[in-house]
Write a structure and sequence with these properties.
Radius of gyration: 17 Å
Distance between the termini: 47 Å
Order of helices and strands: EEEEHEEHEHE
Helix content: 25-40%
Shape: globular
Structural class: alpha+beta
Strand content: 25-35%
Strand order of the largest sheet: 7-4-6-5-8
Length: about 130
């Protein structure tokens, strides 16, 4: 394979096989008030199911999750983030909330903004969740 102009790689046969990149995602969900302890327990369960979660904040009416997503482009990373809460609603016993906001930032831009682009994988149950 050789390097393509679109930062992907040229696959055998002339097609382009896109190389995955890291995207920093901030997903905010919210809805009807829940007991904060129940929200924290649900976020811990989500963190056990999805160990790529880095950190987050929560209250009785919303939660903000931050993590790295690997995807070919921003649209793919956003689509994966939008599905995260719904796909784990039952298994992690998440509150019946909906997505309120999403931000997907390319790794280099995240660093330019002053973000720390350390190791992309970290478990949150060990203290990554904090109240608003």
């Amino acid at each position: 394979m050789t390097e393509g102009r679109d930062r992907g790689t040229v696959a055998e046969g002339g097609g382009v096989a896109h190389r995955s990149r890291l995207w920093h995602v901030t997903l905010t969900v919210g809805g009807p008030p829940q007991h904060p302890d129940a929200v924290l327990a649900a976020l811990d369960r989500l963190g056990q199911e999805q160990p790529f979660l880095l950190s987050g904040r929560y209250s009785s009416e919303r939660a903000e999750l931050r993590y790295w997503e690997e995807a070919a482009d921003c649209g793919d990373a956003a689509a994966l983030a939008l599905r995260l809460w719904g796909e784990h609603r039952d298994s992690a016993q998440l509150p019946p909330w909906t997505v309120l906001a999403i931000e997907v930032v390319e790794r280099g831009l995240f660093r330019d903004r002053g973000g720390k682009a350390g190791a992309p994988l970290a478990l949150v149950p060990s203290g990554g969740w904090r109240p608003y």
